[in-house]
């Protein structure tokens, strides 16, 4: 039986890339997205271009029952879960004096609570089936250093590091590894594109100048590419990383080094 990867937030942008990448690495892939059309499109393309199985599921990662139903469906249709990639995330940029509570709660729910729920339900399956699996959170350098005008996002991502370390301790006795990927700026992602107007205001520059400002901050002088993330995830999901757990792995081109 093929190993199975579950990608939450797998219907577009980085999530789409990771879903297809994992299929190329030999995994059957469950593509989960709040937008079913996006998940279905990615899943169909995996089936058409690889010899791997794939299913599409619509689920809100912040809804406990939907997460339980999602995990049950993956097990029913694909048999097991070896890797969870939690890629669901949202961000909205605003100065703290203007930051709305409902926006803060929304950001924390998607970036943190959804990760908790998915990791909990997947770990139950892994333990029940005796699978020495891998749980990977897509995090951000904003989980290592504060981010101006991004209080909600940075707070949730810092909390994600603590959750990852705690999960790693809880699950070590089952040989289930849990790690966070601390990404640099994904300049070509849908999320970064959506933030360009807000970042232009924050920096006091034109929208067309924003990406270059972020490139200039990176010692390797480029943004974080989807492939950069996928290459590291391939390793951390594999048995080659069997002695690595509870880690917050910088994929930042040297911009963050701690």
Plain-language structure description:
The chain is an alpha/beta fold and 258 residues long. The chain has a single domain, classed as Rossmann fold, CATH 3.40.50.720. It is 49% helix and 15% strand. The chain has eight helices and seven strands, in the order βαβαβαβαβαβαααβ. A seven-stranded parallel β-sheet has the order 3-2-1-4-5-6-7, with helices on both faces. Helix 1 crosses helix 8. The longest helix has 29 residues, at 101-129. 45% of the residues are buried. The mean pLDDT is 97. Pfam families: adh_short. This is Sorbitol 6-phosphate dehydrogenase. Keywords: Lipid metabolism, Oxidoreductase, Steroid metabolism. One of its GO terms (molecular function) is oxidoreductase activity. One of its GO terms (biological process) is bile acid metabolic process.
What structural class results from the helix and strand content? alpha/beta
Helix content: 40-55%
Radius of gyration: 18 Å
The percent range for strand residues is: 5-15%
Q: What's the number of helices?
A: 8
CATH topology: Rossmann fold
Spatial gap, N to C terminus: 39 Å
Q: Ranges with pLDDT <50 over ≥5 residues?
A: none
What is the CATH first-level class name?
A: Alpha Beta
- What's the helix-strand series? EHEHEHEHEHEHHHE
Sequence of strands across the biggest β-sheet: 3-2-1-4-5-6-7
Q: Largest sheet at a glance?
A: 7 strands, parallel
Taken from the alpha-carbon principal axes, the silhouette is globular
CATH superfamily annotation: NAD(P)-binding Rossmann-like Domain
Strand count:
7
Average of the residue pLDDT scores: 97
CATH architecture: 3-Layer(aba) Sandwich
Counting structural domains, the number is: 1
